[in-house]
């Protein structure tokens, strides 16, 4: 039986994620890039202005983009390619109708998607971001980290899927892996805060990142814990934005409640104040809950597309509820996640060479691949799907070791036969799909 008090506290923390981010955003808007003076020790206020004609308490593009993600997540979850497409389409529509203070990189990518009118919006956006990175080498801005909080709410019960989805949503506009890393770290920190009600150890989630970048991120996190937020200005770079936000959480300013004091520190960091405060606010809201936000802020905070505090409460709750239902219905067994990650680490393409039932593939499935799934009776099926129609079963067994070996062998054989992967063909004991066509 669930404890009603703990359920209410967790709901408060869930609602605090979107509200904390929005309040941080609106609190930082007036002071962005020095738009309004902020004296040493002065408490930031929601006075409006900033880089646009913002009303007092009005949020900016940070929360606007997050709302698009949250609305998709609340209705259809974030597990499918269609959901990723809906997010990008929503951003394109937002850019045309309601966007304010849009980052240059985001505008370029979404503008390219709008011009192309592609059937698969996420793929088109990721391709445009990849092209931009190839031309400039600079796609590690803070624009994906600032909007990432709703992704955490969608996967409170599925940390493995959270790692994938956080990176996919980031890659829609920010190709650089560091932007994806930052989103993965922050989403896992938010998830842990919602579940535990405490400030998480950010270094403890480094295992979610590729091994070759963990030490560098550990150094960056430690540096943020040593120094105050202003040390990380300018903070338009995703790494310094995360450092400034984490530093603000670890180095609050003033004698007020922890959330208020840390958001004050985030704004005092200077430079991109609304974004740093939005990033910090999402995690602070996850720790302390919506109930920790001042009533004055909750009465003022609002923004595109005509939402206020209670609307964000409801939206956050619906995202989490949809995420919990999806996690229960679509859980991919750990052993299938592990074999997929094993193949990716070896350079084989998920969706191109192989497909694990239950794991979405943003780029779409090849016309020819090897698949694996867990059946309702606890056994496993490996199959081949190709140009000749009906998928062909290759292995069906209750023995995971047999299924895994058969799956890996078949994937390697397909890749080797295509000539696009340097694979050693497995043991001749295992039949090859091309011999049974």
UniProtKB/TrEMBL annotation:
Protein name, entry field: ADP-ribosylglycohydrolase family protein
Name the domain of life this protein comes from. Bacteria
- Family affiliation: Belongs to the ADP-ribosylglycohydrolase family.
State the organism's lineage. Bacteria, Bacillati, Actinomycetota, Actinomycetes, Propionibacteriales
Q: Which SUPFAM superfamilies match?
A: ADP-ribosylglycohydrolase (SSF101478)
Keyword match Hydrolase: yes
Show the InterPro entries listed in the entry: ADP-ribosylglycohydrolase, Ribosyl_crysJ1, Ribosyl_crysJ1_sf
Q: Transmembrane: present as a keyword of the record?
A: no
Q: Which PANTHER family match?
A: ADP-RIBOSYLGLYCOHYDROLASE, ADP-RIBOSYLHYDROLASE ARH3
Q: What is the protein's species of origin? A: Nocardioides cavernae
Annotated keywords = Hydrolase
Query: Cross-referenced Gene3D superfamilies, in alphabetical order?
Result: ADP-ribosylation/Crystallin J1
């Amino acid at each position: 039986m669930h404890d009603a008090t703990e359920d209410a506290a967790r709901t408060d923390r869930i609602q605090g994620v979107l509200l904390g981010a929005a309040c941080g955003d609106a609190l930082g808007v007036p002071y962005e890039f020095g738009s309004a003076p902020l004296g040493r020790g002065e408490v930031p206020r929601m006075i409006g202005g900033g880089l646009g004609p913002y009303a007092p308490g009005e949020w900016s593009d940070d929360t606007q983009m997050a709302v698009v993600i949250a609305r998709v997540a609340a209705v259809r979850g974030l597990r499918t390619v269609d959901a990723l497409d809906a997010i990008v389409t929503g951003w394109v529509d937002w850019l045309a109708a309601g966007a304010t203070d849009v980052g240059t990189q985001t505008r370029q990518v979404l503008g390219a998607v709008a011009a192309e009118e592609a059937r698969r919006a996420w793929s088109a956006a990721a391709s445009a971001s990849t092209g931009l990175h190839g031309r400039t080498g600079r796609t590690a801005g803070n624009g994906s980290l600032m909007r990432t909080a709703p992704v955490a709410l969608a996967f409170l019960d599925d940390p493995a899927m959270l790692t994938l989805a956080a990176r996919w949503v980031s890659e829609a506009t920010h190709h650089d892996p560091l932007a994806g890393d930052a989103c993965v770290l922050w989403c896992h920190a938010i998830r842990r805060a919602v579940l535990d009600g405490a400030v998480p150890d950010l270094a403890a989630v480094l295992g979610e990142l590729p091994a070759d970048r963990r030490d560098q991120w550990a150094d960056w996190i430690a540096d943020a814990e040593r120094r105050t937020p202003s040390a990380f200005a300018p903070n338009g770079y995703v790494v310094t934005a995360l450092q400034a936000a984490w530093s603000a959480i670890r180095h609050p300013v003033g004698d007020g409640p922890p959330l208020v004091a840390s958001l004050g520190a985030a704004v005092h960091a200077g430079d991109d104040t609304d974004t740093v405060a939005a990033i910090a606010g999402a995690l602070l809201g996850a720790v302390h809950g919506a109930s920790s936000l001042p009533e004055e802020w909750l009465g003022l905070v609002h923004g595109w597309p005509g939402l206020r505090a209670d609307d964000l409460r409801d939206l956050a709750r619906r995202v989490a509820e949809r995420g919990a239902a999806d996690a229960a219905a679509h859980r991919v067994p750990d052993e299938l996640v592990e074999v997929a990650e094993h193949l990716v680490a070896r350079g084989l393409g998920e969706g191109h060479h192989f497909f694990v039932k239950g794991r979405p593939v943003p780029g779409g499935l090849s016309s020819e691949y090897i698949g694996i799934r867990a059946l309702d009776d606890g056994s496993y099926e490996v199959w081949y799907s190709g140009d000749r129609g009906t998928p062909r079963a290759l292995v069906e067994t209750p023995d995971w070791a047999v299924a895994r070996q058969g799956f890996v062998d078949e994937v390697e054989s397909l890749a080797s036969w295509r000539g696009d992967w340097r694979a050693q063909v497995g043991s001749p004991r295992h039949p090859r799909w091309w011999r049974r066509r």
